[in-house]
Structure formats: C-alpha cells, structure tokens
Amino acid sequence: MTLWEALLLGLVQGLTEFLPISSSAHIRIIGEFLPSAADPGAAFTAIIQIGTELAVLVYFRREVWAIIRSWTLSWRQGGRPINQDARMGWLIILGSAPIVILGVLFQESIETHLRNLYIPGATLVGFGLVLGAADLYAGRRAATFEPKSLDGIGGRDGLLYGLAQALALIPGVSRSGGTITAGLLMGYSREAAARYSFLLAMPAVFGAGVLELVKALGDQAALAAGWGNTLAAGAVAFAVGYLVIIAFLKIVSTYSYKPFVFYRVALGLAVIALLAAGVLYPS
C-alpha cells in the first residue's frame, strides 16, 4: 500500500466512522478499487480507528473527564453511583461488555470469513432498512411522546445499546448505525442516541485498536500497510473525524436519517451487482 492510498483510506475512515453507514465496509470496499487492489486488513482498519476515537475524546473531553472522575469516586465508595456521570460510567462499562466478549470469541471469523464482500453488501442494505424503519418510528413517536434524554437511561437500555453495538463486528452493520437504531427504537431522541453512540464506542474501539497494535508490534507481517502509512492514515482520520462529529450532531438535531438509509441501500446494491458481474471479488 502506498502513502497516498493510506491517506485516502484515512480520509474515508474519518468521513464514515460516525455516520450510520459503516466505516469498516467502506474501507473494505474502497480497498478493492485502489491500485494495490487488496483488502487493507483488520489490523490496519482497527489501528486507524484509534484516530477517529481520539477525535471523540477531544470533542467530548469535558463529558469524558466528568464521567471518569465521578466513576472513580463512585468506585471508591463501593460502586454506588453518586451522580449521573458516575452512572453513565457504569453503563458504558456494561454496554461495552457484549462487543468485547463476542469480539474475543469470534476474532478469527471477524478477521477472515466476515470480510467476504457479499457480507457488507448485504448488511448495508438490510440494516439500512432497519435504520429507516427505526427513524420513521421515532418521528411518529415524537409527535405523541417526548423523546427520552440520556438523563433517564438505565441498565436495561445500556445493555441493549451494547448488544446493538456488538452487531458492528459484522462489516456493513455500522457501530453508530446499530446503537443509533437501538436508541431510536427505545424512544431516545436522534441527538441523544448519536451522543451515546460516540461515548459507548470509545472503550471498544480503543481496546480493539490497541490489541491490533500490540499484535502488529509482535508480527510485522500483520500490518501490510506499514507503520508510516498507518500512522499517517490515523492522523488524517483524526482531523476529518473531528469535523464530521461537529457536522453530524448539528444535522441529526434537525433532519432525519433518511439520506443515510438511501445511501446505504444504494451502496449495498451496487456492491452486490459488481460482485455478480465479476468486477469485484468476494475475498
């Protein structure tokens, strides 16, 4: 992989990580159209995702610091939540458990079989339709009931958010798409669902990225793109991702997710058509 290819993939990562359109699917698909015509690999994808999560950490730094500080005080007092921030810390831990457990159990399949291009093609379409249905439901529900905010989130909802996030282990589902869909179906506002999606993703993405980083340090062949290219891609993902967070939160507070639904379905169908025509190859 050349430097410009890595920078392009970093740009794609930054643009797509926080939108409900699946960054991993885009990295996988676009990799096929580069001159190298190769799958960038799970290690490259996981490591550059650290860049986008650093953008989340910077943007939400006050909220993250308040959560960590209150959770630490809560832990020292026997684990009893002392305020909403401490409660949020415990819920993020609870919600992170499903993706960590399933990620460890199915790591081999995630890095091999699930990278078959037919899978992201199908899931882009299928879960795009699910997101559309959830958004339609949320819009109709908001006309009768006040959407829930994160202040009222409890253990059941925190776990359901986590289970939805775990679906993102399948390329094409989208981490933000899964959690946002779950949030809308549970009655949360679009903005609340998006903000919680950002916060919930940090432990899982940082964990996966660090794990792949350690593996790559021990096995240079695991990172085909090379260290220089990967770090450059991560830097681009950070800068672009930060701007996308700002724009996305403004968009969802005003508009529906319908454009993302149309985009997902169109892209998924295009990928399947190209596979059927022999332009793209499954693996």
Q: Keywords, please?
A:
283 residues, mainly alpha
Rg from Cα:
19 Å
Q: Which band does the percent of strand residues land in?
A: under 5%
- Major sheet summary line: none
Shape: globular
Provide a descriptive summary of the structure in words.
The protein is an all-alpha fold and 283 residues long. It has one domain. Helices cover 73% and strands 0% of the residues. The chain is built from twelve helices and no strands. The chain has helices at 3-16, 23-31, 42-59, 61-76, 84-105, 107-111, 118-142, 155-166, 175-185, 190-218, 227-252, 258-277. Helix 3 (42-59) crosses helix 11, helix 5 packs across helix 10 (190-218) and helix 7 (118-142) runs parallel beside helix 9 (175-185). The protein is globular and about 55 Å long. The mean pLDDT is 87.
Write a short abstract of this structure.
With 283 residues, this protein is mostly helical.
Present the secondary structure layout.
Blueprint lengths: L2 H14 L6 H9 L10 H18 L1 H16 L7 H22 L1 H5 L6 H25 L12 H12 L8 H11 L4 H29 L8 H26 L5 H20 L6
Helix pairs in contact: 1-2, 1-11, 3-10, 3-11, 4-5, 5-8, 5-10, 7-9, 7-12, 8-9, 9-10
